Amino acid sequence: MNVARALYSLLTWSAQPLLRRKLRRRAVAEPGYAHAVGERFGRYPAPIDSLMPHSSTDPLGRFVWVHAVSLGETRAAAILLAQLREQLPGMRLLLTHGTATGRAEGEKLLLPGDVQVWQPWDTPGAVGRFLRKFRPAIGILMETEVWPNLVAGCRQRRIPLVLANARFNETSLRKAQRLSALARPAYAGLAAVWAQTQEDATRLAAIGAPVRGVLGNLKFDVVPDAQLLERGRDWRTRTGRPVVLLASSREGEEAMWLEQIQKIRQKSPQALVDHASAAINSEASGDDLPPVQWLIVPRHPQRFDEVHQLLQRAGLSVSRRSTWAAAPGRADVWLGDSIGEMALYYGLADVALLGGSFAPLGGQNLIEAAACGCPVVLGPHTFNFAEAAELACAAGAAQRVPDLAQGTAEAAALAGDARAHEEASERATRFAATHRGAAQATARAIVAMVQPEGGLH
């Protein structure tokens, strides 16, 4: 163990009481963080023993381990897993997460014989207990999650650990270079890396990662839930007015949106008087646009109540998805307070404003919106999905604006123009379809590592 990793290990070991405290605090808003806390430190209950392979030599008995830290990574993992199960019949999945939302979403992916636990905290002890317990045939880290002791533990046990659907922006590279003594051995210790874009591949190689190919973004292979999508479209038709969605909004963006709405109210005091009709009039270039129904879906479920209160304090009536029965309720703003229903929300919306792109947070994934035929308006901050954003803009599936003020105006204008909206929706659908294929290619590369002679080894 080099000096940098020894110091890092001491720090992570010393931070364990702080981690427990943080989990207790987060569990107040999200009870999932109080579940099976011991797993985070490599402590597993006896019932898991009954699910363990009877023999480490059983070619299809050893786990294929996938680590998907949060919700977005878990959804990407779901796309990859469908291909892995097809190419590795009899595969047993070990699925790990770091967040409660990721774990809740991951439960949907489990089949009999699969196991789901928390990612071990990155101390040598917790990592060692995790790897001894489950003895995976291979580990697949989704997108960004590279931990020094986890990589070292796998190398010591000759467990190939790979990074799939890898993305690595300039900020991440600079941070890794500042901590080069720790980061470089971690990235170099991976068995393979498959990047989303050539730019990601170049940056990963610069920090020592063994890049084996650029296979594209798994999220292009998403297949929206047909029932949810159709229900959303049906509700949109019955709404009778254009619907604009603030999708996966992050901290501060709802307040930015409210600032624009308040300006509209000051210019047109009657714009929000009739709450029953929910007619919020937007303006662009001094011209009134058609009435718009606004829909906000926060990125993180722990913020649902917070956003609801923010909207109510601003004097807006709010109808929450959790209260809808046959159709959305009448209100100034609809609030999407559910998990796993983005296809419904994109079907319900004519246009989506991309959350995370108006505050300097790097943007959220726009690919699912495009796959649902929902055109997107982007803010200036899309560094987390830079290539996808640029490709979408070039294909006419998205348009970029400098701020949320122009974004709300552009989105409302597009939503209210039936012909322009139909053309943009068709371009979005074509854009998503054009870039598919990463899931099959990534699964094939993984299978080649774990099944070089016809079986897991």
Summarize the structure in words.
Strand 2 (92-97), helix 4 (100-106) and strand 3 (115-118) form a beta-alpha-beta unit. It contains 18 helices and 16 strands. It folds into 2 domains: 3-216 and 437-450, Rossmann fold; 226-434, Glycogen Phosphorylase B (Rossmann fold), CATH 3.40.50. Helix 6 (148-156) crosses helix 8 and helix 10 runs parallel beside helix 13. Residues 54-60 and 269-290 have low confidence and may be disordered. The chain is globular. The strands form 3 sheets. Strands 3-2-1-4-5-6-7 form a 7-stranded parallel sheet, sandwiched between helices. It has 457 residues and is α/β, with parallel strands linked by helices.
Structural class: alpha/beta
Provide mean pLDDT, rounded: 89
Main β sheet profile: 7 strands, parallel
Distance, first to last CA: 27 Å
Question: Unreliable runs, pLDDT <50, ≥5 residues?
Answer: 54-60, 269-290
Adjacency order of strands in the biggest sheet: 3-2-1-4-5-6-7
Identify the overall geometry.
globular
Give the CATH architecture of the largest domain.
3-Layer(aba) Sandwich
In terms of DSSP E residues, the strand content is 5-15%
Cα-atom radius of gyration: 23 Å
| CATH class descriptor of the largest domain | Alpha Beta
**CATH H-level superfamily of the largest domain:** 3-Deoxy-D-manno-octulosonic-acid transferase, N-terminal domain
- Can you tell me the CATH topology of the largest domain? Rossmann fold
